[in-house]
Amino acid sequence: MTATDERTDGPAIGRPMRRKEDARLLTGRTNWTDNIQLPGTLWMATVRSPVAHARITAIDTSAALAAEGVVHVYTGADFPDLAGSTCVWPVTDDIQTAVMPAICKDVVKFAGDVVAIVLATEKYLAADAASMVDVDYDPLPAVVDMELALAEGSTIVHPEFGTNRTYTAKMPCGDYEAVRAKADRVVKRRFINQRLIPNTMEPRAVVAAPAVGMSDEITIWTSSQIPHVLRVLLALVTGIPENNLRVVAPDVGGGFGAKLQINREEVLAVVLAQKTGRPIKWVEARSEHFVSTHHGRDQIQDIELAVTNDGTILGMKVELLADMGAYLQIITPGTPLLGMFMYSGIYKMEALDFTCTGVYTNKTPTDAYRGAGRPEATYAIERIVDEAAAELGIEPLELRKKNWIKHEEFPYTQIAGLTYDTGNYEAATARALELFGYDELRAEQKARRDAGDTVQLGIGISTFTEMCGLAPSRTLGALNYVAGGWEHCTIRALPTGKIELITGTSPHGQGHETAWSQIASDIIGVPVEDIEVVHSDTGRAPYGMDTYGSRSLAVGGQAIKVAGERLVEKARLIAAHQLEVSPDDIEFSQGTFAVKGDAEKSLTLQALAFEAFRAHNLPDGLEPTLAGESTVDPIDFSYPHGTHLAAMEVDTETGQVTLRKYVAVDDCGVQINPMIVDGQVHGGLAQGIAQALYEGALYDSEGQLLTGSMGDYLLPSAADLPSFITDQTVTPSTTHPLGTKGIGEAGAIASTPAIINGVVDAIRHLGVNDVFMPASPQNVWRAIQNAKGGQA
Amino acid sequence: MVHIGVTVDGVLRHGDVEPRRLLVHWLREDLGLVGTTIGCDTSNCGACTVLIDGRSAKSCSVLAVQVDGAEVTTIQGLAGEGEWHPVQKAFKECHGLQCGFCTPGMVMASVDLLSENPDPTEHEIRCGLEGNLCRCTGYHNIVKAVATAAAEMRGEGA
User: pLDDT tens digit string along A69-96?
Assistant: First the structure.
């Protein structure tokens, strides 16, 4: 790797370049939101409901107001009409939308709901005063379980709707009943995709600075994935004109969907900065993060797979219950539907009958979390295919091969109507099997089984695909999503020849500063180190749709290419003019514009940037300055895929699971920076494996979060994970001009079913055909005992 | 208020602090040394790890008054100006960081780990960093970085 890294000739795309971002991050010269300390700042502290559902009967703020340093205490009565969030994806026409208030006035609807806020001159003093606010609650029954929530006589989270049903979305593709009738067998399972708590390492934080001096602009620094979208939404929610809001996401310490949100703390900070005329600062404590930052997943999946005895998949039925939590936030109802098109996975089938019902409960709202809908879909299809293989007595890999879309069949329009542009499942699988040592491990599994070993071996397979590149704007419109899915880039050649690349994507660990420079370097022929990537500040990068859903390269990368090409075309006109030839006679290569056949006569892009700046000698009618800009609406999604294999050891006496070996072969098309690709896969794997083995939010029947700290919610440490074996096959996308796809979520999407398939495979001979996630010793032991018919 | 004198990143600093003030808050808010981050409030995540008299400690679990007279080293004082510690270099070379929020603590914990065990196995690295959480890297490249730094510090670097 080092050898190619040192290469200075040839394309930058494809090189494992070390990251530009790292210098500041490794030396502490960072600009996290919590680092921003403005003169006169008031610290905001929240008072949160300790109960899941209750009527507020009284709030006494007098002690808090009298405390040292306290400037204001606000309750819901002070902002009766202010929303704390908004939902931009009303997925059906009859959806019942409950909006989170900025501060609850009469009723709290989840443990963690905000009932008051304190503004004080210091962090500690704000926290002290928050603990002095005295709230009387009259408890109401809590709605915790989705099925009970829909049952007759349940307490209703939002009485005005008369039901806890938020919406029911249906997508019937083909005639499922007809294929079910001709099936030899219908394999049915209920899978639980448990609730997860994202836990970015940087908690959320916001600083809002009021307009000062001649500017009417309120500046908001916030730990967000979506500064551009947030600006629009803050304007809509607060009524403050959008042109008076500047949103900056400075260094952001991880997102994973958790920072794809408009949060009440952001709304309040903006409104209070305007009201008080002082900077407002709020930094989330980890204990707050557990209850107040949106959660992920939380679906009950009833899955049917209709198959013939020879192993042909005919159709699939999907019935989901999706827990919304107490309110709808930015894309709460849409998150489960992001997987809607992916339930058929990589397999051909004649019918897919999809239904999803959203359900309100007295819990923290759910929303996007790494993969958002696609991990759930992939889990369902990859698990049910393994179950079908077991019921039919067919090797699980063989069943997959029999039904997957063959390499020569691409482009292929699958049952949900998506056209997969390219893919090569055969190649990825062959490579994975080779790296894994599949046959040897199968032999070992058999030997252990024959010997009746206490520790059994299982092999988990996941041959997945996903959709990324959210999204063609018209597609989003057809799905009732409020916004578009385009992305913007402006590339400016500054007078000194340095390059400013302004992107609408908003990185928080993905290395855009490096990767975007690599792309632009190849297109405009300027060294990577001369390119500065500007992002995540609506004042400097005015247009953007931000970063989520593995869209940044898939969509934003296209805009970089077009913007670069436009810059080159303008520079070509200046070069032709000054070299006194026709633009067609100019050859552009590696940053130099030369006259064809006379390489001595040439101008560099840097020189042309200065010419465009001074404008002494430009072609008639050509405007001064040298830049190219582009806003690209993607023509379609792209479909990364891969084959993941997991060797799982299960102690049949204790239920202890050990991940012995993990192989991930991914195909994300052309790679801009293979080092970053590997890193993205590693991180995704850790989160997907953690869902399978370690993490899970648990509530008691009163709606209390039982896993509300890092001591109770098992985030894996280095000691809980192995090193991974990763590799890639390259099948370029044809929907993307650079041939790239996305990679940010693939690891999280693929790995969860691979792990559970492996665990079940290890103990299937004991009669087990499912294990609840996380596959903790307790859950695995219980599954074994249940299968034995014993008391668990 | 209690008066303390602490050598922080090689500079003697005096301050009057509340007895309850956490070291990490004193560093970040009173001294402006914001390179050290705060990731939790239960001493689990390790983002705030610094060296106190050469040994790693989570600065959220230490009171400022407890380090009176001690030497504290943060990520900002780990190497001289313009210089990098071998662990910092290895984290960059091995892509041992993504968002970078856990990185200050991860680097400081690794420095301490290697001072105790200059030639750790992969298992020893993983167990040695158990108190530091990362959500981006899956630890794969962090482990690689620590092993790479160890080799470099033993004089076996490439």
Answer: 999 999 999 999 999 999 999 999 999 9
Helix, strand, coil distribution of chain B in percent, nearest 5: 35, 15, 45
Task: Calculate Rg over the CA atoms of chain B.
Answer: 15
B73 contacts chain A (CB < 8 A): no
Q: Which structure tokens are listed for A208?
A: 């809002």
pLDDT at A9: 62
pLDDT at A1 over 50: no
The distance of Cα A683 from the centroid of its chain, to the nearest Å, equals 12
Q: Strand B2-8: give its sheet, edge to edge.
A: B11-17, B2-8, B71-73, B49-52, B55-58
Helices A557-579 and A605-614 pack at an angle, to 10 degrees, of 70
Q: Could you give the CA distance from residue A506 to residue A162 in angstroms, rounded to a whole number? A: 40
CA-based nearest residue in chain B for residue A512: B98
Average pLDDT over residues A401-408: 98
**Token digits of residue B139:** 């630890």
Q: Which amino acid would we find at residue A451? A: A
Set of chain A residues whose Cβ sits within 8 Å of the Cβ of B41: 285-287
Between CA B49 and CA A655 the distance in angstroms is 35
What lies within 8 Å, CB to CB, of A177 at 6+ separation is none
Whether B42 contacts chain A with CB within 8 A = yes
Short-list A642, A574, A639, A643, CA closest to A603: A574
- Give the DSSP per-residue string, A612-646: HHH-SS--TTPPSSEEEEEEE--SS-B--EEEEEE
Q: CA torsion sign, A140 to A84 to A257 to A87?
A: positive
Please report the pLDDT score of residue B157 as a whole number.
Answer: 67
CA distance A192 to B122: 35
Judge whether B74 and B26 are in contact, CB under 8 Å: no
Any idea what DSSP says for residue A97?
A: -
Grade residue A8 by pLDDT with cuts at 50, 70 and 90. Answer: low
Categorize the per-residue pLDDT at A175 as very low, low, confident or very high, splitting at 50, 70 and 90: very high
Instruction: For residues A361 and A165, give the distance between their C-alpha atoms in angstroms, rounded to a whole number.
Output: 10
Cis peptide before A411 (omega within 30 of 0): yes
* Alpha carbon separation from A604 to A524, A576, A593, A611 (Å, rounded): 10, 12, 6, 11
Q: How far apart are CA A467 and CA B133, in angstroms?
A: 30
The set of residues, in sequence order, having a beta carbon less than 8 Å from that of A274 and lying 6+ positions away, is A210, A211, A218, A240
Helix A674-693 to helix B140-153 angle (10° resolution) is 120
Q: For chains A and B, what is the number of CB pairs under 8 angstroms?
A: 185
Partners of residue A679 in chain B, C-beta under 8 Å? 95, 98, 136-137, 141
pLDDT of residue B61: 97
How confident is the model over B78-121, as pLDDT tens digits? 998 889 999 999 999 999 999 999 999 999 999 999 999 999 99
pLDDT band at A7; cut points 50, 70, 90? very low
DSSP 8-state symbol, A13:
T
Cα(A683)–Cα(A377) distance, integer angstroms: 20
Judged by a CB distance cut-off of 8 A, whether residue A26 touches chain B is yes
pLDDT value at residue A420 = 97
Give B34-72 pLDDT, tens digit per residue. 999 999 999 999 999 999 999 999 999 999 999 999 999
Look at residue A4 in the predicted model and tell me its pLDDT.
Answer: 39
